[in-house]
Amino acid sequence: MAQDAAGTVGARVSPQVDSLIRAAQAGDQDAFEQLVRTYDQSVLRLAMNLLRSAEDSRDVYQEAFLRVYRNLHAFRFDCSFHTWLYRIVTNICLDQLRKRKVRKEESPTIETREGPMDRMDTFEEEAAHADPERSLWNRQLKQRIESALEDLTPRERLVFEMRHYEGLRLRNIGEALGTTEEAAKNCLFRATRKMRAVLGDFT
Amino acid sequence: MTCDSILKLIPLYYYGELTADEEERVEEHTHGCPACTRELVQQRALAAALDKRRMVAAPMLLEDCRSDLIAAIQGGAPRVAPAVMGPWRLFLNAMAASWSGVGRLRGPVGALALIAIGFFAARLTDTTAPSGTDDVYSTVRSVQPDNAGGVAISLDETRRKVVQGRMDNANIQRLLLAAAHEDNPAVRVESVDLLRSQSGSTEVRDALLNVLSQDTNAGVRLKALGGLKPLAGDAEVRKTLRRVLLADDNVAVRLLVIDLLVANRDDNMVGMMQGLVQKENNNSVRLKLEKALKDMNASIGTF
């Protein structure tokens, strides 16, 4: 279960984060930087898993925290900072996913001499497997997963990945997306059904 | 409960999103239903397959994101679009058109830096291919009317050129080194960022050390630190890092300096860190120092 460094997922603002926010609102640059460092790893991780592009994740990071910087004065402590931040982050990620849906610009696979490979496999993640048969199977499974994720709506994908990779509670995901826990549950169910249908015997 | 209603609950069951009562009902049902048990097994298999594609952001990427953010906040966004031509510039262009031979006029802001860059650029024309048209900027130094109804205007001219070349070109590197001292922090951030890839050269290393010690903008200093990462074992670099750790007023810079120093431990660090941990005001920096000392089996205090 992923937790933000400030405390339990979805908890109200902890006293330490609370004082960082107040100091940052008063113009303390160091406090703002510490606030960013408290949350930025999970923001970058979410963007990386969702967009699978270091460059796009960097853009999401930059845009998200610049918006936080510009609008922090308007944060009134009426929800947790985590929820407020994730509202910003999810909006930016949804925009990115919608753009991709329209343009189909960033294929998750690239052509190599060995055939199509996951873009990220080319510079990080696990090393190529020693067993060629298993390696091929793994590659095909990954392609199926990417294709299944591409078929989800941006909202379904966001809910699904925030739950699976970030370990966020559906209630908090619903809050970040401005919807109910029930709607987030339905989204997760639909996403799982679609994934299962595409993956078939692979899993 | 029917299989249909259980199927809807299985993903939520897997992710621990059900109430205790609902969980119990799912477990009771699946215990006696092979079809729903298979669904649960497949749910676990799906999750395991997804775990295999889990991405971890490289630490360097995180540091780059942080540097970019600080640069954008403190020094203007690193990637700045060229400004639209303002009314003053339009006026000067009109002046230049009617005063042929005098050239376009411009205010003296940053004139010295422009002259320095222009000097380099002029010498580069033989070895690199300049593209686009040249711009001539003039700064009026004096205006002297004479008795015959004329006027003598004294001006300094600066020529703007566009110089293109590869990063490994020595002349391009010299231009970037000059640009790393430009007045505009956005230009400094961009130049230092480009120089990072060339930190193997002594000249570039020294320039990065100079920027790290003296640049007033924390974003630029962080970029320089990024470039010095591969050289964190170099004695000269470590000397500067120790000095920066003691003197820099920016928390992000101090934290990154500690990371670089700790990555290549040496005996000089312990005493300095023990002294610093006693007077460090910032919690994050103090905790990082304490952890570094603990990792080196050194005591936190100096006794």
What labels would you give this structure?
heterodimer, A: 203 residues, mainly alpha, Rna Polymerase Sigma Factor, Chain: A, two-stranded antiparallel sheet, 8 helices, 65% helix, elongated, disordered N terminus, B: 303 residues, three-stranded mixed sheet, 60% helix
Can you walk through the features of this model?
The complex is a heterodimer of chains A (203) and B (303). Chain A is mostly helical and 203 residues long. Chain A has one domain (15-106, 152-202): Rna Polymerase Sigma Factor, Chain: A, CATH 1.10.1740. Chain A has helices at residues 15-25, 29-51, 54-71, 81-103, 132-151, 154-164, 170-176, 181-199, and strands at 109-112, 115-118. In chain A, strands 1-2 form a two-stranded antiparallel ribbon. In chain A, helix 4 (81-103) crosses helix 7 (170-176) and helix 6 crosses helix 8 (181-199). Chain A is elongated, with a radius of gyration of 19 Å. Chain A starts with 14 loop residues before the first helix and ends with a helix. Chain B is mostly helical and 303 residues long. Among the domains of chain B are: 3-52, no CATH class; 183-295. In chain B, strands 1-2-3 form a 3-stranded mixed beta sheet. In chain B, helix 6 (111-124) links the parallel strand 1 and strand 2. In chain B, helix 1 packs parallel to helix 3, helix 6 (111-124) runs antiparallel to helix 7 and helix 9 runs antiparallel to helix 10. The model of chain B is unreliable at 77-133 (pLDDT under 50). The chains are: A mainly alpha (203), B mainly alpha (303). The interface between A and B is large, with 46 and 36 residues.
